[in-house]
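Aim 2 progress. For Phosphoenolpyruvate carboxylase, the working sequence is reproduced below.
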Amino acid sequence: MNVLVPECETAMNYFSTSDLFLQQRLKLVEDLWQAVLQVECGQALVDLLNQLRSICSADGHKGENLASSISALIEELDLDDAVKASRAFALYFQLVNIVEQHYEQRDQQLSRRATYHEEKKQNKEKTKEQAEDSLIAETVGKDWLEKNWSDDDSFQKAGLFHWLFPYLKQLNVPPQQIQRLLDELDVCLVFTAHPTEIVRHTIRRKQRRIANILRKLDQAEESFRGMGLSNSWESIAAKEQLMEEIRLWWRTDELHQFKPTVLDEVDYALHYFDEVLFEAIPQLAGRLKKSLQSSFPSLRPPKNNFCRFGSWVGGDRDGNPFVTPEVTWDTACYQRGKVLDKYLHSMGELSAVLSPSRHWCSILTDLIDSLEQDKQDMPEIYDNLALRYRQEPYRLKLAYIQTRLENTIKRNQRLTNPEERQLLSRQKDLNYYKTGNDFLEDLRLIQRSLEATGLTCIELTNLITQVEIFGFNLAQLDFRQESTRHAEAIAEIAEYIEILPKPYTELSETERIAWLAAELKSRRPLITQDMPFSERTRETIDTLKMLKQLQIEFGLEICQTYIISMTNEASDVLEVLLLAQEAGLYDPATSTSTVRIAPLFETVDDLKNAPKIMQTLFELPLYRATLAGGYDYIEQLKGNCDQELPPSVLQPANLQEIMVGYSDSNKDSGFLSSNWEIHKAQKALHKVAQAYRVNLRLFHGRGGSVGRGGGPSYAAILAQPRATVNGRIKITEQGEVLASKYSLPELALYNLETMVTAVIQSSLLGSGFDDIEPWNRIMEDLSSTSRKVYRQLIYEDPDFIDFFLSVTPIPEISQLQISSRPARRKSGKQDLSTLRAIPWVFSWTQSRFLLPAWYGVGTALELFLVQDPEENLKLLRYYYFKWPFFKVVISKVEMTLSKVDLQMARHYVEELSKPEDKERFERLYDRISEEYHLTRTLIQAITGHGRLLDGDPNLQRSVDLRNRSILPLGFLQVSLIKRLRQFQAQSAIIHYRYNKEDLLRGAMLTINGIAAGMRNTG
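Predicted structure tokens for this construct:
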């Protein structure tokens, strides 16, 4: 039996045993996979799978008769066998993913140990060269990124706190700069519900169970090897358990049985908090504190919630009619219920640990006073437990805390009923926690009492950290809506009350801003409850009213950000502020607001206009006052106010959040142009904000795939323009990214740590290469050329839409039950303008073109190189090794090209094209093929790699494994889609042999399997 693990020409990583372990585990799961299939389906299916894999082996893939050989074999299969084969390959890839993730986690643990020991060694044996380097104080950080990006070994070791702080010390970074950054450190990761999560919740649980069994198997094997044994009953039992789990998985439906609701998606996203993040996150703060103390013992660590979480699930209503105000309310209640259950569970653990008696230790007077107050508030608890805990004050206090938590949970459950909600708003009950801060005060009181007597409690410390990070809301809900919805609402309101001399839609931008600014100074309401509005306008108004209700019930921390997608003008922002005023979120008298309005700039044109739009807003005194926290704060910023002002409503104050979108800019202009325009926009926005003394937080709307801004977060953050991070960043995390980053504890911690490390590095050691004007001009030319080439194919070729709809599985993808959100923003004409970026990227990934992530790059590079082939190639190679932005762009293109399979893509074209379309579709395929080969050749020339991904052997191995093994699924997908489309075209023969439901199910299974095999959807 062939093991689908390619031989590696170079060492896979620092640890020579790691790849051996991985190969052994891949061999194990493959053997178990085949054994399960033999039991469940018989030897005939196993033989068929091996035959398909043999034809698609590395040698077979090179043969010219591959497509015809495998097509002939697959076409002979009846539907039942084709579906079973599709399921089998899909299961195989998911097992491979589990093994890879498990050993990624293992490698990270080994890497952490190695970095820690190397740090200790370096501290003891500091060389003369290191001592000389540390004296370069005047150019702190100047060449750090140059060294880091040109030295692969250095880059591999970077990314961990144990590496970061000694390096900062070596570079003589002033401690006061580090302290200032740590005090303001703010990393926010926002989980989204975009339809990239194709795996069922049920399957996710099975994946975690298998990962846990693998961990037990590791432990068992390490134990018996340590005793000199060749095997043990523990390892045999673990393998038997693996076999049982895979059999149960085989008998479980992989596909969603129904289209998930928004609350189902909420549950999917919270799964990672529930299973991994809640318990893992205190360790992140602990690791940073220990690493900081070892290098800079006098510095204060950042606040525990320096890394926090947000969510769009249940708050993002852009194009999703199912996200109603009531659904958002239910989402907030669901999130609170989840986190309160976690805290309640912790009470039992704390009570078991905190058993000190008054006989043997003293207690703070504050705690004694608190217990007296609790006795008055909850006499029944005192009557029941005073005798049991008469000498154990901590346990008695925890009993009161637990009761308040239980009351809070009961109240939260009642809040989901609108009638109960009204009753609860009028009740005055002291015996529940209104906010997480009230709960936190009780926990800190216990902590202070323990510390006063020389005691610590790690369980209590962890719980306090969790409450500081998650509060009573788990994650902050962001609201998002498309800009035209607000304009429509304002236009309808203005028309009804006849306040304008002409329709709002006919006003110029200057007129709109003037009218909106005047209304934002008026205390006269525009809206009354009985106004007859359209359903869309009523929903827009009710959404902001719901935001206000949420803040009243759950506190400001539940939702502070309102994102406007497709922001085109400054008036788009002022329209939301005016609607917020009507909802009670903005006070015109003081210009204070309890909501931050974040414009989202998505298309290339919007990114170019973004600095001008923000400048227009910053010029408005009322808007600047809103950011600062009110008119009084503006005077303070100008230096005209000496009085001590109370804290601003929103913290931090004077902060403008701006979101930049990768997905739509890429779909609009192609990969290279999108990345460059986002890079330029960030620099320009930072410059504008700085001129108006406004702090800026950039919100990066990254997707899972390269075509939507995805890729390694560590490298991406380091590649941001200098000074644009400044200790603050907000990033979306979505779809398969959640599964690959947060499904295992150590994996989650590693990803969080590398992200925080990158933010600190980028802020303190930013590169100056972004400011070299000749480099920028060259990038501008490359970007412009690539955009032109991309749009000539995607938007200007009259045959392209038909090509896309025919040779990719986009029609079938739209029927997947994976998201509550429609595939298109608007119903109607089937064009690219209404298609969401996610299914756009997903479909090209399935058919192995991966077009959005590389098309146009090759021609742009070629036109630059032909001007002076030798010198310009040297220049591009210099950029690659010295300029972080260029390095990341080229590396992402290289990774994507490694996943492209044009031989497989050609099969989609040949088999799924109608006879009358073949000639024009072949022309488009040849055009794409030519650009691919040109791009691949030039990327390898720039990187100096003989093979794609030679610079990342681990990724190269993973891609090779999948490229070689995924081919049968592609052929099966083409066959099933072809049959399905023939059925839908009313073919009598196909009608006789199959039914539509079975054909569609088979096609869906191949989509599921290829997504797992590619480790990428949209």
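The two ends are 34 Å apart (CA to CA). This observation will guide construct design in the next reporting period.
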